[in-house]
Amino acid sequence: MGPYQILSRVGEVAYQLALPPSLSGTHDVFHVSQLRRFVPDTFRPILPDSVEVEPDLSYDPQPCGILEYASRSLRNKEIPLVKVLWDETRPEEAMWELESEMRESYPQLFW
């Protein structure tokens, strides 16, 4: 969701983060498995307040477009896939999704 400052280490595997006021309802201590090292990208600044968090503290990214089509063979069945670029991600972070699910959920991506 964004780069946040680590305030302190809590125990062996948890860290307390300095969260913005918009996330005041969120517990500020996270297990290390939930954290990733922040690698700044000078071409793409991150604005912490630009991420809209739902009341239940979930984040629902929206697809920006389809980068690639492919199909995988599973026994005697072909499974069509699409490589989806989600908002706030770079092209190398695009994910493979089932084409049928994407057509059902996001028909505007297919013309």
Q: Could you explain the architecture of this structure?
A:
- The chain is mainly beta and 111 residues long.
- The chain contains 1 helix and 6 strands, in the order ββββββα.
- The chain has one helix at residues 99-105, and strands spanning 5-10, 14-18, 29-31, 63-74, 77-86, 95-98.
- The strands form 2 sheets. Strands 1-2-3 form a 3-stranded antiparallel beta sheet, with no helix packed on it.
- It starts with a strand and ends in a 6-residue tail after the last helix.
- 2% of the residues are buried.
Question: Which features does this protein show?
Answer:
111 residues; mainly beta; three-stranded antiparallel beta sheet; 1 helix
Helices and strands, with pairings:
Elements lengths: L4 E6 L3 E5 L10 E3 L31 E12 L2 E10 L8 E4 H7 L6
Antiparallel strand pairs: 1-2, 2-3, 4-5, 5-6
